[in-house]
Write a structure and sequence with these properties.
alpha+beta; 3-stranded antiparallel sheet; 4 helices; 18% helix; globular; coenzyme A diphosphatase activity; Nudix_hydrolase; NUDIX_hydrolase-like_dom_sf
Length: 239
């Protein structure tokens, strides 16, 4: 069942975020980045043709699992968030799934950076008044602290991806975060921490994006305050 994109949802998410004791990471040795978790409206079936060309979305990487080809199809409908496929030509984290975002510029806070990156990467400009609140910080293996900023888009919006950074932008229904097979946790020999996987479409979304999306479900939709900062990234994302 899809989730209606309405004032009730906006009030529920805002209230859950406001009542949460946010877990912040204060480590001056780490670089600070922010991502925009943009909530928009979507229609069922509008994503049945994958807009990312095969040579870009695959980028030579292995299939995520048996029966999965990495395509983000059949995920839209009702309240949704914007998910980007990064360009394969990027020097780091190429062809991976990501939320719009990047490092903070001098003098910026996380909200400023998330709104700026949203404009630069996907061509959507929103005011600070659209911000519903912040999720917990997530410290990455590559030396960043990521602050997720939850933003109410106010409608469908029409992304215009910057081709040097983003191959395609998808509207992924929030109901997809509540699939019966989600979340998944696997063990790896390189770490005692469980690796989180969020099944979406024909792919698996890993941390840090997967951790952010899991807290969007747990806290934003369900009001659960469970931490996600100890969930591990797969080894391919450690660099």
């Amino acid at each position: 069942m899809t989730i209606p994109y309405d004032d009730g949802l906006r009030a529920r998410i805002r209230g859950h975020l406001a009542g949460h004791g946010r877990r912040a990471v204060t480590d001056p040795s780490r670089r600070h980045a922010a991502v925009a978790v943009v909530l928009v409206d979507s229609e069922v079936g509008e994503d049945r043709v994958d807009p990312a060309p095969v040579d870009e979305w695959n980028a030579g990487r292995p299939r995520p699992a048996a029966g999965l080809d990495g395509r983000m199809v059949d995920v839209s409908g009702g309240a949704a968030f914007l998910l980007c496929r990064r360009a394969s030509r990027l020097s780091s984290h190429s062809a991976q799934w990501a939320l719009p975002g990047g490092r903070l510029d001098p003098g910026e806070d996380a909200v400023d950076a998330a709104l700026r990156e949203l404009d630069e990467e996907v061509g959507i400009r929103l005011a600070e008044s659209a911000v519903l609140g912040l999720l917990d910080d997530y410290a990455t293996r590559s030396g960043y602290v990521i602050t997720p900023v939850v933003i109410w888009g106010g409608g469908r919006l029409e992304p215009r991806p910057a081709p040097d950074e983003v191959v395609a932008v998808y509207r992924v229904g929030l109901h997809q975060l509540q699939r019966d097979d989600s979340p998944r946790f696997i063990a790896i020999p390189e770490s005692p921490r469980p690796v989180v996987q969020i099944p979406l479409g024909n792919d698996l979304i890993h941390a840090p994006t997967g951790a952010v999306l899991l807290q969007l479900r747990w806290l934003g939709l369900e009001g659960r305050h469970d931490p996600v900062n100890e969930l591990e990234q797969p080894v391919f994302a450690w660099k």
